[in-house]
Request: fold
Amino acid sequence: QEENKQLTLKVEELERKLQTTSAQNIEFLQVIAKREEAIHQCQLRLEEKTRECSSLARQLEMAIEDAKRQVEQTRERAASREKAAQSKVLDLETQLSRTKTELNQLRRSKDDAERRYESRLQDLKDRLEQSESTNRSMQNYVQFLKSSYANVF
Reply:
């Protein structure tokens, strides 16, 4: 009876561990859902930056055309207008360059997040598999003990 009590206690302990593992799995699933939402938000920002980049490129083309027309209209204003246009072009190119850099950074960030997510997911799968294997081993051991005690008594 004492051994049965000990076995019962071990079984109860294993059930508590199983419940703890299940709770951890639920927490991991919540973390995964949050990471997926973060990835989605990054994708939305990436799309927004892409649209902004296209808009800046169109603005740049419009500014260049405007500068050319002004040069053709008058030679006197051409020099001052050309300097202003070149300054604006440089600013827009700088902005475009910055936006492209940000776009590349966002892409890298998104790729890094996806890699981390995949790695974490695989780690969680491996842990779950290991936990299930341990649970099966413990259940087999408990079953072995039960049959051994049944044979003894």
About this structure: The radius of gyration is 33 Å. The chain has a mean pLDDT of 92. The chain has two helices and no strands. Helices lie at 2-73, 75-152.
